[in-house]
Amino acid sequence: MGWFGPSQDEVWGRLSEEIGAQFMPGGFWKRAKVQKRVDQWTILLDTFTRQHGQHHHVVYTRLRAPFVNPDGFRFTVYRAGFLSGLGKYLGMQDVEIGDPEFDDAFVVKGNDESRLVDLFADPKLRELLASLPRMRVEVKDSEGWFGPSFPPDADELYFTTRGVLKDLDQLKGCFAVFSALLHRLCVIGAAHKYDPGVRL
Q1: I need a surface site. Which of 31, 71, 75, 87 has the fewest CB within 10 A?
Q2: What is the second-level CATH architecture of the domain 8-72+133-187?
Q3: What pLDDT, in 10s, does the model give residues 2-23?
């Protein structure tokens, strides 16, 4: 343990032990990773750096899970803030789920409103999302030119939060949210429960 509490490797290693995942320590040329198999899906936790402006770099924690998305269902959910509140006032698309507390706390967007309502109709899923730090969860088409190739019917569940996440309970919550979302997507017919054939 260092001056600023346990290191990322220490926390992520303990996380892996507690949730039955595989931990791959980081090194000079590679990032630490945690990989967990949930039914036919593989959830991968790691970090990446994004450039903001010419000299400013920000580290993000992310989770990714490829899945078979037969109908191209897309959604994005993130915590509401001042700008999103202003956007709602100005008429920005935001799907109301029907839970006032959740609707006030989160912005939900997507390409199928009835499916979005069905997706977040599960109170346990809403509770899990509310336990997470400020974040963004979305379905992405692929990772672009530099990522792995995706079959035409495969997409990616994608989570990001700013900074290196080292809170053990929040990390467990992230994996619980991903597992719940993947199963819920199957329940509403927006995912198929078999291996998408993508290796991250």
Answers
A1: 71
A2: 2-Layer Sandwich (3.30)
A3: 556 789 999 999 999 999 999 9
